[in-house]
Specification:
It is built from 18 helices and 17 strands. The chain is of the alpha+beta class. The protein folds into 4 domains: 89 residues, Uridine Diphospho-n-acetylenolpyruvylglucosamine Reductase, domain 2, CATH 3.30.43.10; 116 residues, Uridine Diphospho-n-acetylenolpyruvylglucosamine Reductase, domain 3 (2-Layer Sandwich); 115 residues, Alpha-Beta Plaits, CATH 3.30.70; 90 residues, Alpha-Beta Plaits, CATH 3.30.70.2740.
Length: 475
Amino acid sequence: MQHPVIPALASLVGPAYVLTDPAATARYTTDWRRNFPGAALAVVRPGSTEEVARVVAACAEHRIALVAQGGNTGLVGGSTPDDSGTEVVLSLDRMTAVRRVDPLDNSMTLEAGCTVLAAQEVAAAAGRLFPLSLASEGSATVGGVVSTNAGGEQVLRYGNTRDLTLGLEVVLPDGRVLQALTALRKDNTGYDLKQLFIGSEGTLGIVTAATFKLFAPPRKVVTAWAALRDPQAAVGLLARLTEVVGERVTAFELIGREALSQVLAHATPGMRDPLATPCDWMVLFDVSETSAVLDPAPAVEAVLGDAMEAGEVLDAVVAASGRQAHELWALREHVPEAQRLHGASIKHDISVAVSRIPEFIETAGAALRARFPGIRIVCFGHVGDGNLHYNQSAPEGMPEADFRAQEEAVHEVVHGVTARLQGSISAEHGIGRLKQAALLQHKQPLALELMARIKRAIDPANTFNPGRLLPPDLH
């Protein structure tokens, strides 16, 4: 028998935009990594903020849980329904309007369903830069990245999504709309309410539009790949670069040998090791300049030369063209896909203070190898902001099932070292359903209590993304 909320939703958004057939809802009910397959009571695709508000109000009246979804590129099971078949997925994929672009104000306002790539293109058409850059940018939406506070490759210079967001439009659990789409840089009139919703993973409100900062685009980008003595040399090279070129260091990525080896093992034609002699640790970095009259290349080459004399950098190549820079970045960007093709893997998204990255890599690596002989460590990530994607692949010849059986023990080691170094068990992927146990174990109890109190105050009926981020027993 059809649930009475279904015809009510159809009357609000039109029958074509309320999906109930499993074949039609499949793409909305399975997460990116296929770890949390679910079933939806319905998938609703409103076309405006007003329709979102009406849908939310109707679901609140029927006490139906809502799962807001953008591009469904999340990695922690936070944007798909559970398997109960009682939750409604509210997809923002029809809401793609560009509401405003102001180059003089260096801001733009987009609806939540715009992809990150589309946002970049809108900014570029106005002669500006929207610096958020993700591997999933062709599918990830701006509403989704706000809700998860996504990071990416240029956080070092421009910050996380939180730092790029000026204002929000948010539908609350009772159907009211918080209009805070300001482009103001300074507004000292009380609590900065938008910060509650950025990174809240859809548990407090549904973001329907956002105003973002824009920047002058770089006129010159120097891209380099360097072989290093060890991770300590990577941190040292970053410090050298920052001392000489300051905030022009836009991205600084560490890549371990196992990560590059897996990329090359599954390489597309034309991919190769940029350097003749293999080494254990490499960095890939960009230094960008917005001025038309300044060239950072001589400074970068001088820094690399000094680091080579000091024995920190063993070899290096500076891209001679945009195409060569693209080829270097392709190696970094293919690491996650290569690991997937390589077989079973256990993934972590941790952060520590930049100065403690070498200590983390040494301590966690030694602990893992002692407990799991032969384990292969796939370490790569955004060293410039302290975020490592610290993953593990199975020892050679170990059956996948046997390796998967060790997953919780591997997490225990990695998260334990992270906690001892005062780091975070989730740097940019969020909590969702995947990391709730780790959150409860490693987050300060008072912080968890305050988070739960905020959730109860804004969503007392617990209808927005229940069971994600905060476990149900904390509501």
